[in-house]
Amino acid sequence: MTWLPYQRPSSLRALLRTPVLRNLHEAWSGFGSAWHLPTVDQMDAGAPDWDELSLAEVVRHQGSPAFRLVRVGAALSQRAGRPLLEEWIGAAPPHPAEDPLGGAAYAYGRCLATAKPSHEYGHFDFGDGPPLLFERLLLPLGQGLTPTHILCGAVFSGAP
Fold it and tell me: Is the overall model pTM greater than 0.85, yes or no?
């Protein structure tokens, strides 16, 4: 008889507010197990529309992790107003204009260190128009239990 570790049902899925991120989490959960993370190839084939997604490669930089964007969906680049492909997250302290929502390097680092999903949600209402809703889901991909990439789903709605 083989004993498998107990895995609690994911309460993260219940927290996800947007269908894109729920579908992404569902695909990721279907490929992984207690013994291995999903791979980039698995998620490439099984991920929903890449429009709201980005893929960052984990790179060690002077003893600290950094993340290089190797794939970026059109909606994310359009939202940023520039191509994001090959940009770095965490290689240097971000300038506030480069990381307007703050904490991207920290969130990616947390996902890498724990090899578990990371979820953030923000609702910003400045009173001068429709509120901005932001939701981000980071999912580790890799070999065995070692993350080699971070898959990010980021959804914005409301004012730019």
Answer: no
